[in-house]
Write a structure and sequence with these properties.
globular, Rossmann fold, six-stranded parallel β-sheet, 11 helices, 9 strands, Pantoate--beta-alanine Ligase, Chain: A,domain 2, alpha/beta
């Protein structure tokens, strides 16, 4: 079979691409008419193995899978990478076809934010924990608004989010709970490269030298967790972790030990369960990661 024929075959067998709200509602109504469970996997595209793991988890929990691909402009500040954020739609569709995803919801910005759009969500609680919100104060308002729209457009039985964006996961969980959106939010474990680096679409920005350095972030988290388990005071263990990351060449935004559910600061392990969270810049690339203790 020629490459063109193979491509055409994948296209025929691939997920249905939906770009309008009426078409989305009809597709979901057809699934519901058959009493089928529906899972949503929200993404911004540029799919990697971590995203595909979310889809596989969704497949275990629901009969029908909808993946959204939308690079949300409202969660990017003017100085951030909205314009250069990787967009690989054709490749994404081919990967989703392999996993037999039922539909891809790919709206335009005009569809999501039409003329006259005037309502935005201002989340509190975990959205004001002093981590991502401290360095990206615009971020969770944009995330909460777009996620609320996606959940209300589709009203899936479950929606799957990665634990790599841990504070975001807690914000979205609180959003669904507080606004009585009847969707179960499921957190999926972080998928890593063989050297421990958390998979991220932004890893593509790393130079070869930076890519070799990047796993130091995860090593620092693991070393800090081991120190805490051995009885080292939290402040001391965190200071050593920050220093290790800086020695590797990162500029640290935060390196924190927080309560795993509330994201409140903690003074001792007994205040847990505990999650270690870090964000740091390597060159022009900002990476985040987290692990449980």
């Amino acid at each position: 079979m020629t490459r063109t024929a193979k491509s055409a075959l994948i296209q025929r067998k691939g997920p249905r691409v939906i770009r309008s709200l009426p078409a989305l509602r009809r597709a979901v109504a057809q699934m519901r008419a058959k009493r089928e469970t529906v899972a949503l996997v929200p993404t911004m595209g540029a799919l990697h193995a971590g995203h595909l793991a979310l889809v596989r988890l969704a497949r275990k929990r629901a009969r029908r899978i909808i993946v959204s691909i939308f690079v949300n402009p409202t969660q990017f500040a003017p100085n951030e990478d909205f314009g250069s954020y990787p967009r690989t739609f054709a490749t994404d569709l081919a990967a989703l076809a392999e996993l037999k995803v039922d539909a891809v919801w790919a709206p335009t910005a005009k569809t999501m934010y039409p003329d006259g759009f005037a309502t935005r969500i201002a989340p509190e609680g975990p959205a004001l924990a002093g981590m991502e919100d401290k360095f990206r104060p615009h971020f969770f308002g944009g995330v909460a608004t777009v996620v609320a729209k996606l959940l209300l457009q589709i009203v899936p039985d479950i929606a799957v989010f990665g634990q790599k964006d841990y504070q975001q996961l807690k914000v979205v969980t609180a959003l669904a709970r507080d606004l009585d959106i009847p969707v179960k939010i499921v957190g999926a474990p972080t998928v890593r490269e063989n050297d421990g680096l958390a998979m991220s679409s932004r890893n593509a920005y790393l130079s070869a030298e930076e890519r070799a350095t990047a796993p130091a972030l995860h090593r620092a988290l693991k070393d800090c967790a081991a120190r805490l388990k051995s009885g080292r005071p939290i402040a001391e263990a965190l200071a050593e972790g920050r220093a290790a990351i800086e020695r590797a060449g990162f500029m640290v935004d935060y390196f924190e030990a927080r309560h795993a559910e509330t994201l409140a600061p903690i003074a001792r392990l007994a205040d847990g369960p505990v999650r270690l969270l870090v964000a740091a810049k390597l060159g022009r690339t900002r990476l985040i990661d987290n692990i449980p203790v």
